[in-house]
Recover the amino acids of this structure.
């Protein structure tokens, strides 16, 4: 029997994520919102603004949900930039980056 909570069209990928530096607090994001370290938001190069991404730290199994509201990161190594509060909740704040599994349902 299939798990009804898991959507059939959910995309799952393993990537590296990092988080925003303190200097970005209050700056405008690509969506026009201001970056706030306390909110659970993220930057992704291509996903539409408003996409909710479930991020799971593969080392600790901690999970957070973030909303895409910015573009970036512009580095080949990282595919996602998350807010500081999301990084703390995932347990990667002191490490600086982590290998994570992301899952999201593409917006229609």
């Amino acid at each position: 029997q299939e798990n009804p909570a898991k959507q059939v069209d959910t995309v799952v990928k393993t990537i590296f994520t990092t988080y925003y530096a303190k200097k970005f607090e209050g700056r405008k994001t690509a969506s026009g919102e201001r970056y706030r370290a306390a909110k659970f938001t993220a930057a992704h190069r291509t996903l539409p603004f408003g996409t909710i991404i479930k991020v799971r730290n593969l080392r600790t199994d901690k999970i957070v949900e973030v909303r895409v509201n910015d573009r970036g990161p512009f580095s080949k190594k990282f595919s996602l930039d998350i807010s500081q509060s999301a990084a703390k909740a995932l347990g990667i704040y002191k490490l600086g980056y982590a290998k994570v599994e992301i899952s999201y349902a593409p917006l229609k």
